[in-house]
Amino acid sequence: MIPGVSTRRRFKDLSEQEILALAISSEEDDGRIYRSYAEMLRADYPDTAAVFDGMAIEEDGHRQRLIDLHRARFGEVIPLIRREHVAGFYSRRPVWLIENLGLERIRDEAEAMERDAEAFYLKAAQRISDAATRKLLGDLAAAEAGHQSRAEDLEAEHLGNDARATEDRTAKRRFVLTWVQPGLAGLMDGSVSTLAPIFATAFATQDTWTTFLVGLAASVGAGISMGFTEAASDDGELSGRGSPVKRGFASGVMTTVGGLGHALPYLIPDFWTATITAFVVVFVELWAIVWIQNRYMETPFFRATFQVVLGGALVFAAGVLIGSG
């Protein structure tokens, strides 16, 4: 292989047999992806899993028709050619990259899979002069378009309005319990608990670099502690709160972010400029916490404001008074 030179084939250089083989391998891959989605969703979203089961069966039917056509035209031996072997051919995102992005994102990805396949075959057919090849590509495009219609029929059969609404509520609840709740707890802990040590250090020393180091240590330490505490406190099996690793990651990162928000301004050499900037950051942090509580945790706005702003103000005042004394 010559460095810098791509070894991928151009679509226009493929023979009709290779195009057919590429379609067969693509249908096989898509069927496998749909089955992976179905297994991944079956426990929590059985109706959507049934839709993906049906789509996988449809892909099997398309693949078998293509294999029968290949056998009739070219014999039993199917060339080994896959999407990654062809330059410009549409690609599929790995299942592991999609599975953590939520139910609606998986549904959207499945719809995009069918649209991409249809669009590719239509565009390819327009660039081919051979009549038999154009017909083959047109048939593949029609099959993909028909699959989209079949997918809609499967959704209507297995995923009515009530089932979809139920699954959407389940997905939202899982998102809140796995990501929002531990992340919010971390943001509150990082933002509020580090106020006293950071501002006490600031007013006691009036040294911005020392204040930054104290804030950095407090934020990172609190983040590590909160992350491990969240991950170890509940394995998620009985509570339904999801992966402890995800929850620990969300809590730890947001705790660190919450503390660093008002520690980073002390990288500014001038004490009062840094302190005023930190005041502004604290104000934004506290109102961000109020908004998240109101938006995702459905906490009444005024109650969230009273709890967060008052609590933060008391901790902030304690830090300033201790540092000034």
UniProtKB/TrEMBL annotation:
Residues 18-154 form the Rubrerythrin diiron-binding domain. It is found in: Endomembrane system. It is a multi-pass membrane protein. GO terms for cellular component: endomembrane system. InterPro entries: Ccc1_fam (IPR008217), Ferritin-like (IPR012347), Ferritin-like_SF (IPR009078), Rr_diiron-bd_dom (IPR003251), UCP035918_rubreryth/DUF125 (IPR017040). One of its GO terms (biological process) is intracellular manganese ion homeostasis. The chain crosses the membrane at residues 209-228, 274-292, 304-323. GO terms for molecular function: manganese ion transmembrane transporter activity; metal ion binding; oxidoreductase activity. Its main location: membrane. The keyword Protease does not apply. The keyword Transport does not apply. This is Rubrerythrin. It comes from Roseovarius azorensis. The lineage of its organism: Bacteria, Pseudomonadati, Pseudomonadota, Alphaproteobacteria, Rhodobacterales.
